[in-house]
Specification:
13 helices, 22% strand, 13 strands
């Protein structure tokens, strides 16, 4: 048996993750005087707490002990190897923590049970296709080396895109100038963001949510043929309009998962995201040029 481990940004409900044989290590949200596991919150509770929080909270990676305990539990349950897939090392210290936890295990365990750790260079639902594939192959009894190789292949062709409903949370976590955020909200600008190779890059701004979804669907249409799509949302109903727009170009299933509290804290309510599995590269520069022509 190969154990599969990921972090809580992946968005899988605990019961579903357990049924698939996926162990989830939660990130931490640091309120003023309290550290809360993001698995102990839902987004509605998070946003309510923010209304009365004396200071804007921050996210933190799991502790090394949290990963080490997960590894030990899987080994005790009979795991012959472990594959860990975590969010981008450029966004979080989770990858480094997962590595450190491996070194904390007794040497006899490390010698007998190999633990492979992958930097997904993505996050949240952007990791999910690879995590689900790895769990499926683990249930089929495939060896660790093959599962790791296939997970890397899926990660390499998974594109993670999203539309923010507000710039306020990006400003509050220090990633955007306050004046620009206020101006953007006054003009109802919706940022279109892409997470590629572990970096967040802008694919443009739209003057309404519908225009943002139109631009997003144009980007995704250029990726055809598409192997699969997964949707994510930071608040209920946020991705419904995006789902309808995607149905005009993609006839397959569009499963929907929550963007968990650790991600929602950095993007805000109303965020809709999509993970697209395709062998085609994203044509961001070409899309920007076409967008500029349309705006002129």
């Amino acid at each position: 048996m190969i154990g599969i481990v990921t972090d809580s940004t992946v968005g899988l409900p605990p019961a579903l993750a357990a049924s698939l044989g996926i162990a989830i290590v939660p990130l931490v949200i640091l309120f003023d005087q309290e550290a809360v596991l993001d698995s102990d919150l839902d987004n509605s509770t998070l946003f309510r707490r923010l209304e009365s929080a004396p200071a804007f909270p921050h996210t933190s990676q799991p502790s090394p002990a949290a990963f080490a305990q997960t590894y030990s539990r899987l080994i005790a349950a009979g795991a012959e190897g472990i594959l860990t897939i975590v969010l981008s090392a450029r966004l979080s210290g989770t990858y480094q923590t997962a590595q450190l936890a491996r070194e904390l295990l007794p040497e006899e365990q490390r010698q007998v049970v190999p633990i492979e750790i992958l930097d997904s260079q993505s996050a949240a639902i952007g990791m999910l296709p690879a995590v689900l594939k790895a769990a499926e192959e683990a249930r089929q009894g495939m060896p660790l080396a093959a599962i790791r190789a296939h997970a890397q292949e899926v990660l390499a062709r998974t594109h993670f895109l999203g539309v923010l409903d507000t710039l306020e949370f990006v400003r509050r976590n220090g990633r955007l100038n306050g004046v620009l955020a206020t101006l953007g909200d006054l003009l109802d600008l919706k940022p279109i963001l892409v997470l590629e190779r572990g970096r967040i890059v802008s694919a443009g701004l739209a003057r309404s949510r519908q225009r943002a979804y139109h631009q997003l669907v144009q980007l995704i249409a250029a990726l055809r043929p598409i192997e699969g799509i997964i949707l994510g949302e930071s608040s209920p109903g946020a991705a419904e309009d995006l789902r309808r727009a995607l149905q005009t170009i993609y006839p397959g299933e569009l499963p929907l998962y929550p963007l968990g509290p650790a991600l929602a804290l950095n993007t805000g309510p109303g965020t809709a995201a999509v993970a697209v599995v395709s062998r085609s590269p994203l044509a961001l520069s070409e899309h920007a040029a076409n967008r500029d022509k349309q705006s002129a």
